[in-house]
């Protein structure tokens, strides 16, 4: 049985990993590991680094064969501040690290200004929506897409790309 560790307790992230491996004989663990980046990553590079670190740290703190890191961040462009989301799949018995990115959406100015002032997206979204735990549910992407795409959906898409790369590399056909 393949053991997989998710470098987070976040329910949306853990469920995305479960979705990617549904119907397969796997054991999925979740561990709260360090991302090694700011609480609010502020670039694609920093968000990727957080995902890779979570996947590697999960492996180092478990006996799993595969480590998964999923990280959300923001990236500043000339058009404004966008959400960005990245994932990494690390294989214990090789040097392979697979990386994939997800959907992007422009954040409203009222939210972007608070992030640029140093706040983190999760608490800003809780305040913005007057609800608690947005990051563990639909996420900012769910709020701003009227839940047509939720955080779990977005990370499930990233997981499909990660697992597909892993299968391609190691010759596993569907």
From TrEMBL:
The keyword Cell inner membrane does not apply. Transmembrane segments: none annotated. It catalyses: ITP + H2O = IDP + phosphate + H(+); XTP + H2O = XDP + phosphate + H(+). Residues 7-161 form the Non-canonical purine NTP phosphatase/PRRC1 domain. Signal peptide: none annotated. This is inosine/xanthosine triphosphatase. It comes from Peribacillus loiseleuriae. Its EC number is 3.6.1.73. Its cofactor is Mn(2+); Mg(2+).
């Amino acid at each position: 049985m393949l053991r997989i560790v998710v470098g987070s307790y976040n329910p949306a992230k853990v469920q995305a990993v479960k979705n990617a491996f549904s119907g397969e004989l796997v054991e999925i663990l979740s561990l709260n590991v360090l991302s090694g980046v700011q609480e609010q990553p502020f670039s694609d590079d920093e968000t990727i680094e957080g995902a890779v670190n979570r996947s590697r740290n999960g492996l180092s703190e478990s006996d799993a064969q595969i480590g998964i890191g999923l990280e959300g961040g923001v990236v500043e462009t000339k058009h404004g501040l966008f959400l960005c989301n990245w994932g990494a799949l690390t294989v214990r018995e090789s040097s392979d690290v697979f990386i994939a990115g997800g959907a992007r959406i422009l954040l409203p100015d009222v939210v972007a200004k608070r992030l640029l002032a140093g706040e983190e997206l999760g608490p800003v979204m809780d305040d913005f929506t007057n609800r608690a735990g947005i990051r563990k549910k639909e996420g900012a992407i769910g709020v701003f897409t009227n839940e047509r795409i939720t955080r779990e959906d977005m990370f499930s898409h990233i997981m499909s790309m990660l697992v597909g790369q892993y299968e391609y590399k190691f010759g596993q056909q569907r």
